[in-house]
Amino acid sequence: MSEGSQLKLDAHFINCGQSYGQFPEGLIVLSLLDAAKTYPELVAAPENLTGNLIYVPQQVKIEKPIVIYNHAAHNHILIVCDNDAVINIIEDFTSSSDDIHNVTEIKLAPLARCKHLVIQRLAAEKLHSQVRVEQQNNTIFESFLLQKGSSLSEFEISVNLCGENAQTNLSGVFRGNGKQIHKQTVNVNHLVPNCHSSQLFRGILDNHAQGFFYGEVEVLKNAIKTQAHQSNKNLLLSKYAQMTTCPQLQIYADDVICTHGATVGQLEDDALFYLQSRGIEYADAKNLLVEAFMQEPITSITNGIFKQCCLENL
Amino acid sequence: MLIVEDLYANIGSQEILKGINLTIGAGEVHAIMGPNGSGKSTLSKILVGHPAYNITRGKITFNGEDLSGFSPEERAQLGLFLSFQYPVEIPGVTNINFLRAAVNAVRKAQGRQTLDAIDFLSFIREKCSFIAMDESFLYRNINEGFSGGEKKRNEMVQMLALEPTLAILDETDSGLDIDALKTIAEGVNKLRNPHNAMIVVTHYQRLLNYIEPDYVHVLAGGRIIKSGDKSLALELEEKGYGWLESLEKV
Amino acid sequence: MANQDQLKSWLDKDYEHGFTTEIEVESFAAGLNEDVIRRLSKIKNEPEFMLKWRLAAYEFWQSMPHPEWSTVKFPKIDFQAISYYSAPKNLKDGPKSLDEVDPELLKTYAKLGIPLQEQEMLAGVAVDAVFDSVSVATTFKAKLAEYGVIFCSMSEALQKHPDLVQKYLGTVVPFRDNFYAALNSAVFSDGSFVYIPEGVRCPMELSTYFRINAVATGQFERTLIIADKNSYVSYLEGCTAPMRDENQLHAAVVELVALEGAQIKYSTVQNWYPGDAEGKGGIYNFVTKRGLCKERGAKISWTQIETGSAITWKYPSVVLRGDDSVGEFYSVAVTNNYQQADTGTKMIHIGKNTRSTIIAKGISAGHSSNVYRGLVKVAPTASNARNFTQCDSLLMGPLAAAHTFPTIDVKNQSAQIEHEATTSKISDEQLFYCLQRGIPQEDAIAMIVNGFCKQVLKELPMEFAVEATKLLGISLEGAVG
Predict the structure, then answer these.
(1) Above 90 in pLDDT, residue C203?
(2) Is residue A20 part of a domain?
(3) Which of A240, A276, B154, C301 has a Cα-to-Cα distance from B2 of 20 to 30 A?
């Protein structure tokens, strides 16, 4: 059952706000209302919040992707992975009647691993989504945001690295067309030593689209041996497209390595001409180069199914 | 010249050297061979005082002095030199300025005459010519954009300039083709004399065809498990490091 | 791995220039009101337009709130507790030659190493030495006059070239621009004025030295440099100040105007008193510096080495209005103890085919905080704009902080903008490499830091490179490879 999602995958499909009980592999998916009764230590009684608790108990490894069809006007998703648990989760924002406000919280207990993919292909509905991640020691979190639709799409992803040896790899692409506005705010806080983080984002803007990227890395005083890298590259494909990028570093510890880079530019004439001279039509040549531009973040997706899903939905 | 007695050392909580005993006399070349992870690089770094390693037991004596009280630069000024396996890049600092600072620091500490800019230039040009290193490299930043071979030759130029009493070559041959290897070896051999000594750390026997050792030691699991003359290296090459495992069990 | 004490001692060179000159000074009582401004303008015998402008600025300033920045913390400044005019008594009539200059003053300048003697002609540097609020002497005026170059105090410019001043003053930094610009416009007492005529390449480096002496005198300098078509000038600014307990304010405004094909190179080595090891005292340096590449092919470069001040707030900027114009910003900012620096640049691309380069190096030690704040803005009209920014921070010590806040705002598709930044400490491996070659730790650190700053240091004019490298605590040979 696809539960309204249009993604074609072999996955567990979840309609946001519904309860599903316990899956055979051990995964537990409940509506927030039900979860407040069964797991009061995880979920306080919500007031008028639609949403879900997705709970993976200790050492349970769910390899099959879970797709949340996320279409409610106000939605709150709480994903809790207990010690050494594994989950692969896709948030599907593909069609909705209303504008969407969403909060997704992801909590990873020690040794847990989570791969997270967001596909946003709305029509004109507006979207504001916050992803808040808390990682304990020795956890791995990977996330990819694909923003394509919506007239105004704002994503904020914020990661707190609370335990040592945690790793977080955040990447994403936004494609703006018409008069769309895309915003991506990324925030990684290194609170303890020995963590690694990376941010790899690309923006492609055409027609009158506008893009905004705010990427922050904050390293606290005791967070020594931090390695943090950030890269934001953007393509402007038309005369009226606009981009604002603000990569930011706030570093309070000295024994660290932190880098960031940002570029804004256009397709290279030489490259375009080369393809055309080999008989490829201008429009196709342009597409080829745009695809190439998106390669780096997409290649960084380690989950094969996720990667495929992205490529199909680009 | 160098006496290593019952040396135990670790990095962090991991023990790497488990009782090394080694004696090196003036005029001698000792080769240290062993599989990866045996502790060869560790030993090299400990001899020159790398702060990441801790000596938990044992002693290192150099020309009668206990090295434990000496900082890395003091050891260099005493005449110890390490050719690094992975030489680091230092942006913005040219090779020539670096070399002049080092040469003069060591000379000063040793009570020798320091070299002014002009004298130094002719001094270093001569050293460059010993290993066919183009003079233009002097004006490049330390190891920045250098190929593997260039980095190793840069280490050689430094060695030739600093004229150490004990030179430790840490896998100088790794990543080099035969021609580059020969050039390096030529430089090393030019430096050999009855008053200095060398430790050549290598994984492969090949280098030892060009830099002939007087002694060969095999390091495995943090200890020297066998010592011999240069024929030991050939034996090791023939029989492989697996042969060592059987030795260890003995 | 680097021994923290040794790092500290390397950074804590005793402030050399800490001394005061005992000399009589005619100053206004503390306080700021319209009356003070009228008196100021009168004492200087300024033309009518100047007084009008000052009053308009003052009125505007009164309507503005005190600015606050998220990262820079300081106690609120009481503007009524500052005296806005301080002049050495003997110079009321202005010196006509060096013979007329107060010998005490000359001794002061000698101590500071300022070549105010004619013999210094060999050095080829003309000096407009500003002592507190009145320009003391201008040497080599005759030589420059041959070329038609005007280099004099702002006060003199208002007397002799009022039309030029009126034409350009406030066109690059209008008094409405910000709080301190408004204050400066109202109460500036002097500064430098430079005009390079068409086609002239100024025959020598121009420089100005500042010094704040009297207690609680803020310094409000106003500098205006105009380079007419196809001219060239290199201007050096270096500042020193004595030790004080109360914080002293320095709110200068520098405006540069480059016309078609003209080039202005503005270099600063700033050595204001940074506050003692506990963070007490020190200068507040709030400066607005901006260059306007007004016409086609103009070029403006800012090069600065900032090591002093308790608090620094400055963003030398370039507005690239003319087609094919070029803006450059090279900076090394060092902070130690409890210093706070919030500096950077703005490159505003408006014309076509404009280019900008930003190389900013920050070094933070002690408990200091070093912020780079940059803006690269490409307007919709700015086709083919190019920018390259390299922004690196070196942290020396576990209690220092370094922050990088660039903003890149592009509204034209044909722009190519690249920004890179790294933050780290001196790597243990680099340090060990130098030590193993026998180089003592202090020298090794100096060498690595120097290498870190190399790209910026090599942009400085020769004689400034000396003071700059001394300020960075390293030998000249290491710096000028």
Answers:
(1) no
(2) yes
(3) B154
Do the two chains B and A touch, given a threshold of 8 Å on CB pairs and at least 3 pairs?
Answer: no
User: Residues 6 or more apart from A93 whose CB is under 8 A from it?
Assistant: A70, A71, A100, A102, A118, A119, A120, A121, A122, A127, A129, A149, A150
For residue A53, the enclosing domain spans: 1-125
Instruction: Tell me: pLDDT of C217 over 60.
Output: no
Q: Which residues of A make CB contacts under 8 Å with C? A: 221, 224, 234, 236-266
CA–CA distance, B3 with C223 (Å, rounded to integer): 69
**Are the Cβ atoms of C397 and A241 closer than 8 angstroms?**
no
CA distance B152 to B173: 8
Decide if C398 and A258 are in contact by the 8 Å CB cutoff: no
Q: Which range of residues forms the domain containing residue C91?
A: 4-479
Residue C216 pLDDT > 80, yes or no?
Answer: no
Find the residue in A nearest to C418 (Cα). A263
Residues present in chain C in total = 481
In 3D space, the residue among C253, C249, C43 whose CA is nearest the CA of residue C169 turns out to be C253
Per-residue pLDDT at A41? 85
CA distance B198 to B188: 9
| Closest by Cβ to C408, choosing from A240, A262, A266 | A262
B82, B84, B98: residue with CB nearest C447: B98
> Torsion angle, CA of C49/C55/C60/C61, rounded to 10 degrees?
120
The domain total for chain A is 1
| Interatomic CA distance for residues C249 and C311, integer angstroms | 10
Q: Read off the pLDDT band of B239 (50, 70, 90).
A: confident
Q: How many whole angstroms separate alpha carbon C164 and alpha carbon C175?
A: 18
Contact C455 B92 (CB under 8 A): yes
Number of other CB atoms surrounding residue C385 within 10 Å = 28
C194 within 8 A of C235, measured Cβ to Cβ:
yes
**pTM exceeds 0.90, yes or no:** no
Phi-psi category of C163—alpha, beta or left, where left has phi over 0 and alpha has psi -120 to 50?
alpha
Q: What is the pLDDT of residue C474?
A: 37
B6-20, C315-329, C422-436: which has the highest mean pLDDT? C315-329
State whether C438 and B76 contact (CB < 8 Å).
yes
CA distance C43 to C50: 13
If you count residue pairs, one on A and one on C, with CB atoms under 8 Å apart, how many are there?
107
Chains that touch A (3 or more CB pairs under 8 A): C
ipTM over 0.85: no
Can you give the C-alpha Rg of chain A in angstroms? 20
Interval A14-70: pLDDT, tens: 988 889 989 888 999 999 888 888 888 888 766 667 899 999 999 999 999 999 998
> Higher model confidence: residue C117 or residue C254?
C254
Q: Contact at 8 Å (CB) between A84 and A56?
A: no
pLDDT in tens, B179-224: 888 888 888 888 888 999 999 998 888 888 888 899 999 988 888 8
Q: Minimal Cα–Cα distance from A46 to chain C, Å? A: 35
Angstrom distances, CA of residue C153 to CA of C128, C129, C137, C159, C193:
7, 9, 9, 10, 6
pLDDT value for B249? 59
A239 min Cα distance to partner chain C (Å): 5
The more confident residue out of C26 and A225 is A225
Domain count, chain C: 1
Per-residue model confidence as pLDDT tens digits over A199-238? 999 999 999 999 999 999 999 999 999 999 999 999 999 9
Residue ranges per domain, chain B? 2-249
Which one of C393, C402, C410 has the shortest CB-CB distance to A264? C410
Residues of A in contact with C421 (CB under 8 A): 247, 249, 259-261
Mean pLDDT of A244-267: 92
Rounded Cα distance, B156 and A35, in Å? 69
